[in-house]
């Protein structure tokens, strides 16, 4: 690694200009963190607080090194370094105090000493500052507001503030000692479940994704998608959908997915005839789908498994069909636009051949196969991730060794001592890059989970979750659809300032109890609905982060691209509704019932795409579009007769559109 070419960072601010010594420190801390995670995942598991304490300390050190106090475009200077040194010490104290004095802290069992409270205050401030740098100001503000809310009340540190709170939000208020102890020394605060999942399952799978990425798996998935769909109408756009589904298994970020696959797919979509805003929107919608695509699901699968006490493999299995439904909807949107604009596929000469793609990259499928096999064997997800990483490294080493010793000599590259030394050094460099990239990519999600722990701790302390349940019941009047609309709006607002993982955690703690206890939604479905709705901030203006990333690559206006992404990603809104009113596709049931629900759901989503675009086999008039829209509501209604009527209406409307296309003479392409 050198100063002019640091490893890629898939997070805001990671492109800061850093001095050489800082780059070396980042590498040392990041590699040390990754090695620690591998050790604790596969060699010697550690206790709960030991694991989380060391993980958080190293993550925060990495955050302070990667993200200067005054932003990436300004040098640290004397003041910046002074601030950083203070927070370096805070990071070490945060994790070190808990690890060194855990037995004494446990023995005090709630009767905290002055030192405990002082360290708790240091830890809370340090976590909030690390979050500000790595995640953004919005996350930190929400964390601060949560702490202030805990202080507001007649017995709290801010009794006057409690007088300004609406009656339903009033609580007794808590002292500094009680809040600090809850956030740092309890199991529902900073070191609670969100950080626990980030420090175990999430990190090891992010590391696995980093090794896949650094060894070229991204290009393999993209080439495979192009080979499969490139010759079809709108081939590059369909390749974007498939490649994003593939990248979803190795990427933990919709924005990272856009940047990775969009760099290839968006220019080709524009070349084929898609408008720039369409190309950016398609890529953003497809990349957002990568976050609901098993097995990784942007860390969501692990959190849902922990919160619902459901085996991780079960979460993966039930998420496959909804993910397929989502990508099928985006795929159909792409196909309809290609038909409307008379697009053709790409020439065979410009496309990779599937046989050649598989010949060069089949080894990327082996670690994924090992991962799935070990999950089926009911191994711990953390141990599965460990073996997946080891398999990825072993496969890469063996494949290169076979080429070096047996293929290269026949191509005029003999095996010599100097070349062997260079190859070994290059391999070690690639290994370090993978370890570093994995740690860098985990900083944002770990810090988001740490601050989410603060919010969860305050919710548990003040009973805010029950208050939100009462408010939802009052505002919705007991109507489940209105309650879901409220959840959707809340997720959109939270998503403007929080990353998806944090938005899901905060929202499920606040509204989850109401959905399950007051509205009767099964626990697992309630979590899936909130998780899916938490994705909408990526594609919904005014803050459509994935859409804006697509606009930057496509050279289009951000808001226009955001609205296109919002249109293409409508499955994010409809599929969760279908889960609620037709729960058999998630919780199971008779085979025929599950099959029926799957078929009508896919039919409804396809008909919805056609009605929205006003085109399927040919142009669609307003009457069948209105009929299809009404039929979709019928299909979503939990009544067999209503569902059958809705299906019949959709089939008739689609059939008439097909007949109309057959009667039409060949005409010029329809302008979009």
Approximate shape: globular
Extract low-pLDDT stretches.
Answer: 1-15
Count of helix runs: 30
Which class of secondary structure composition applies to the elements? mainly alpha
Main sheet, how many strands, which sense, barrel?
none
Task: Give the termini separation.
Answer: 48 Å
Annotation, overall tally of beta strands: 0
Task: Kindly report the oligomeric state of this protein.
Answer: single chain
Mean pLDDT: 84
Give structural notes.
With 672 residues, the protein is mostly helical. The protein has a domain at 589-672. Helix content is 73%, strand content 0%. The chain has helices at 20-42, 48-66, 77-100, 102-108, 114-134, 137-151, 159-162, 176-185, 193-214, 217-229, 235-247, 254-272, 276-289, 300-308, 312-340, 354-361, 365-376, 381-407, 417-462, 464-476, 480-495, 500-518, 523-533, 545-554, 558-568, 571-581, 584-587, 591-613, 622-636, 640-663. Helix 10 packs antiparallel against helix 16 (354-361). The radius of gyration is 26 Å and the shape is globular.
Quick gist of this model?
This protein is mainly α and 672 residues long.
How are the secondary structure elements laid out?
Blueprint: H1 20-42, H2 48-66, H3 77-100, H4 102-108, H5 114-134, H6 137-151, H7 159-162, H8 176-185, H9 193-214, H10 217-229, H11 235-247, H12 254-272, H13 276-289, H14 300-308, H15 312-340, H16 354-361, H17 365-376, H18 381-407, H19 417-462, H20 464-476, H21 480-495, H22 500-518, H23 523-533, H24 545-554, H25 558-568, H26 571-581, H27 584-587, H28 591-613, H29 622-636, H30 640-663
Helix pairs in contact: 1-2, 1-9, 1-19, 2-3, 2-5, 2-9, 2-19, 3-5, 5-6, 5-8, 5-19, 6-19, 9-14, 9-18, 9-19, 10-11, 10-16, 11-12, 11-13, 11-15, 12-13, 12-24, 13-15, 13-24, 13-25, 14-15, 14-23, 15-28, 17-18, 19-22, 20-21, 20-22, 21-22, 22-23, 23-26, 24-25, 28-29, 28-30, 29-30
């Amino acid at each position: 690694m050198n100063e002019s070419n640091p490893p890629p960072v898939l997070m805001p601010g990671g492109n800061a200009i850093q001095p050489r010594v800082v780059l070396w420190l980042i590498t040392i801390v990041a590699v040390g963190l990754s090695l620690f995670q591998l050790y604790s995942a596969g060699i010697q598991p550690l206790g709960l607080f030991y694991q989380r304490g060391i993980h958080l300390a190293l993550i925060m050190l990495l955050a302070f090194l990667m993200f200067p106090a005054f932003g990436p475009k300004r040098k640290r200077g004397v003041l910046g370094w002074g601030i950083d040194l203070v927070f370096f010490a805070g990071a070490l104290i945060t994790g070190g105090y808990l690890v060194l004095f855990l037995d004494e802290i446990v023995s005090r069992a709630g009767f905290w000493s002055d030192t405990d409270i002082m360290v708790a205050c240091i830890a809370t401030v340090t976590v909030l500052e690390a979050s500000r740098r790595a995640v953004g100001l919005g996350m930190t503000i929400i964390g601060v507001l949560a702490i202030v809310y805990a202080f507001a009340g007649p017995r709290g540190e801010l009794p006057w503030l409690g007088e300004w709170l609406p009656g339903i939000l009033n609580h007794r208020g808590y002292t500094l000692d009680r809040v600090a102890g809850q956030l740092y020394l309890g199991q529902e605060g900073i070191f609670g479940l969100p950080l626990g999942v980030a420090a175990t399952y999430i990190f090891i799978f992010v590391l696995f994704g980093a090794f896949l990425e650094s060894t070229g798996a991204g290009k393999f998935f993209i080439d495979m998608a192009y080979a499969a769909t490139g010759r079809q109408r709108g081939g590059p756009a369909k390749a974007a959908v498939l490649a994003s589904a593939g990248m979803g298994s190795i990427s933990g970020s919709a924005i990272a997915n856009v940047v990775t696959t969009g760099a290839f797919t968006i220019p080709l979509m524009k070349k084929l005839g898609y408008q720039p805003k369409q190309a950016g929107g398609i890529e953003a919608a497809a990349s957002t789908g990568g976050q609901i695509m098993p097995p990784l699901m942007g860390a969501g699968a692990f959190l849902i498994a922990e919160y619902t006490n459901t085996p991780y493999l079960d979460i993966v299995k039930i998420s496959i069909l909804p993910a397929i439904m989502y990508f099928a909807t985006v795929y159909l949107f792409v196909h309809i636009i290609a038909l409307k604009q008379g697009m053709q596929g790409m020439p065979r000469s410009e496309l990779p051949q599937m046989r050649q793609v598989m010949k060069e990259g089949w080894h990327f499928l082996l670690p994924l196969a090992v991962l799935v096999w070990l999950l089926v064997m009911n191994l711990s997800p953390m141990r599965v991730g460990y073996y997946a990483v080891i398999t990825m490294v072993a496969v890469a080493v063996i494949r290169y060794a076979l080429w070096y010793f047996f293929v290269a000599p026949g191509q005029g590259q003999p095996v010599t001592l100097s070349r062997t030394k260079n190859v070994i050094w290059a391999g070690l460099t690639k290994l370090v890059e993978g370890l570093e990239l994995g740690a860098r990519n985990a900083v944002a999600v770990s810090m988001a989970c740490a601050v989410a722990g603060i919010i969860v701790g305050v919710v548990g302390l003040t009973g805010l979750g029950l208050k939100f349940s009462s408010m939802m019941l009052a505002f919705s009047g007991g109507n489940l659809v209105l309650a879901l609309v409220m959840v959707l709006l809340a997720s959109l607002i939270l998503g403007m300032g929080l990353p998806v993982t944090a938005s899901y955690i905060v929202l499920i703690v606040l509204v989850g109890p109401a959905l399950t206890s007051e509205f009767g939604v099964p626990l697992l479905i309630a979590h899936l609905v909130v998780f899916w709705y938490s994705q909408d901030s990526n594609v919904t203006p005014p803050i459509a982060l994935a859409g804006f990333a697509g606009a930057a690559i496509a050279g289009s206006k951000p808001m226009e691209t955001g609205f296109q992404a919002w249109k293409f990603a409508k499955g994010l809104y409809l599929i969760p509704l279908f889960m609620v009113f037709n729960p058999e596709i998630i919780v199971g049931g008779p085979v025929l019932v599950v099959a029926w629900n799957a078929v009508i759901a896919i039919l409804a989503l396809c008909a919805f795409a056609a009605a929205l675009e006003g085109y399927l086999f040919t142009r669609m008039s307003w009457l069948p579009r209105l009929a299809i829209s009404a039929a979709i509501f019928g299909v979503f209604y939990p009544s067999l007769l209503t569902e059958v009527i809705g299906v019949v209406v959709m089939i008739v409307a689609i059939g008439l559109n097909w007949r109309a296309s057959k009667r039409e003479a060949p005409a010029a392409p329809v302008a979009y």
